[in-house]
Amino acid sequence: MNNLVKLAEGRGAYVADDHWTLIRDLEGDLPSSPLILPLARWHQHGQACAAGQMSLHGLWLGPDDELESLEPWLDVLPLIALDFPDFRDGRAYSQAYLLRTRLGWRGELRAIGDVLRDQLSHMRQCGFNSFAVRADKSAEDALKGLAGMSVLYGRSAIEPRPLFRRR
Which of 47, 101, 126, 144 has its CA 20 to 30 A from that of 155? Predict the structure, then answer.
């Protein structure tokens, strides 16, 4: 996956070589590299791992997919990607926040789809730690979007205390 930005120790960095391959189709042959599969296809292929053994494949969720169905598998998933089919569709923000706060997901949480620079700061506050920036945009330029707001008043996935509690 090209145009990838990741957070490492709180700082954003461009990733030139991503070893994950995003699979959008539900049918067809699969490459041998680590894959990010749609939820339905992951249940067919990626879920076939012994209890406690890490899955070889990550999965991606669409805006309508149920998070709670993942709960038994969170310990074996190496990556979860949440899809933004359109930059105006914010359901993945809620999914990310719920994955981080309610379900306790601590692994790589990647934003995919229509991901733009202006969204990155908000995505970070919801718990995303990697961002597949839209192919026609510059990932280096998108890094500037991670700076975002210097002070957050409300709570977020990365800072659960509101501003008045941080004094």
Answer: 144
Give residue limits of the domains in the chain. 4-165
Instruction: Return d(Cα 80, Cα 60) in angstroms, integer.
Output: 6
- Burial label for 57, CB within 10 Å (0-12, 13-18, 19+), is buried
CATH of domain 4-165: 3.40.50
Tens digits of residue pLDDT in 28-58: 677 777 889 998 888 776 555 544 567 788 9
Full-model pTM? 0.85
Q: Report the alpha-carbon distance of residue 108 to residue 129 in Å, rounded.
A: 6
Q: In what order do the strands lie in the sheet containing 79-84?
A: 11-15, 4-8, 130-132, 108-113, 79-84, 58-61, 35-38, 21-22
